[in-house]
Amino acid sequence: MKVLVTGAAGFIGSFTSHRLLDRGDEVIGVDNLNDYYDVSLKQARLDRLLAKPGFHHAHIDIADKTAVDQLFRKHQPQRVVNLAAQAGVRYSLENPYAYIDANIVGFLNILEAIRHFGGEHLVYASTSSVYGSNTRMPFSVHDNVDHPVSLYAATKKSNELMAHTYSHLFGIPCSGLRFFTVYGPWGRPDMALFKFTKQMLAGEPIDVFNYGHHRRDFTYVEDIVEGLVRVLDNVAQSNAEWTGDAPDAQSSSAPYRLYNIGSNNPVELMRYIELLEETLGVEAEKNLLPLQPGDVPDTFADVDDLIRDTGYSPSTPVEEGIRNFVAWYKDYYQVDDVAHNVR
After folding, report:
1. Which of 124, 152, 259, 329 is catalytic?
2. Per-residue pLDDT of the chain in tens (343 residues, 90 and over written 9)
3. If DSSP codes are grouped into helix, strand and coil, which group holds residue 244?
4. Which of 83, 156, 157, 332 is the most buried (most CB within 10 A)?
5. Do residues 252 and 168 touch, judged by C-beta distance below 8 A?
6. Which pTM was predicted?
7. Alpha carbon distance 16, 175 (integer Å)
8. What is the CA angle 148-105-226, rounded to 5?
């Protein structure tokens, strides 16, 4: 197939593009290479993709409607994976307009382009953050999620609503994926595993929020991508049993689906840090801090719907995932195992 992947130089987007290319798909990778985090890391991900046959890069911002329309008109992608977004819960308190531009305006431009230029299926990134103030565990896609606690979460909930509207009005099959704390090689520097590794190797203290009592459904990136591609291949269908008398949030009378995509196995943050300490051979100096604004104490994914519809089966234990990340980090940054110095 010809698949357009936005955010292709991002963490999940680069892995997704590799997976699609490896099975013979043609990939049009869209990324604006913004400076939310280290651009050189994004460029390194992109360079690996550019070396593969079947990959084409478009350096555009999805908030630019004219550029998006021109891209769709030129390439006529059969399917679309929208992973471009302004990520991060805490940053949304500092720069809210970046979230509106990328996550609302940008997403609208993608929906409009599919409406006018065609596309068999849109798969887009949502987030576990939409569960906000929900406390019933595990989080279920059938539950109400109308109480977000960050603007980031609110924009992603908006994406789900916008996708449903376009599915209903124009028959566009849309599948939303609520990602649960993705980690692994080539990960994001603003995420805990990356920050902790960098600080611990430098002999610096790490900030441990909620005094380490967070629980997160840490999900290895290759498990995430396996589930994403399975959803991409399983075009969203309307639910003939759906009724407005008892509306189900996961499906619709329109070709619309929502899925949690996680490991279904939450790990306490302190245990996560212990595993990192064991892997690095470094004991972390911990700066214990309270829960931060916009954060939620726990996440735990109910993935039964994804298993039922696609056969999704996350298989990477957190111990293995952390080892793989540390091995990549040391290689990428040329870390000396003895002195723990970066050359």
Report:
1. 152
2. 999 999 999 999 999 999 999 999 999 999 999 999 999 999 999 999 999 999 999 999 999 999 999 999 999 999 999 999 998 888 888 899 999 999 999 999 999 999 999 999 999 999 999 999 898 989 999 999 999 999 999 999 999 999 999 999 999 999 999 999 999 999 999 999 999 999 999 999 999 999 888 888 999 999 999 999 999 999 999 999 999 999 999 999 999 999 999 998 889 999 999 999 999 999 999 999 998 887 778 888 999 999 999 999 998 999 999 999 999 999 999 997 644 544 3
3. coil
4. 156
5. yes
6. 0.94
7. 16
8. 70
Per the CB < 8 A criterion, the answer to whether 181 and 218 are in contact is yes
Cα–Cα dist 228/223, whole Å: 9
Among 12, 15, 138, 144, smallest CA distance to 85 is for: 12
Q: 27 in helix, strand or coil?
A: strand
Rounded to 5°, angle at Cα 77 from 73 and 82: 105
**Local structure of residue 14 (DSSP, 8 states):** H
Residue 152 annotated in active site: yes
DSSP bridge partners of 259: 177
Q: For 291, left (φ over 0), alpha (ψ -120 to 50), or beta?
A: beta
| Cα separations in angstroms, 238 against 81, 163, 243, 245, 258 | 20, 13, 11, 16, 12
CB atoms within 10 A of CB 238: 17
Tell me how far CA of residue 19 lies from CA of 10, 30, 83, 103, 190, in angstroms. Answer: 14, 16, 15, 24, 24
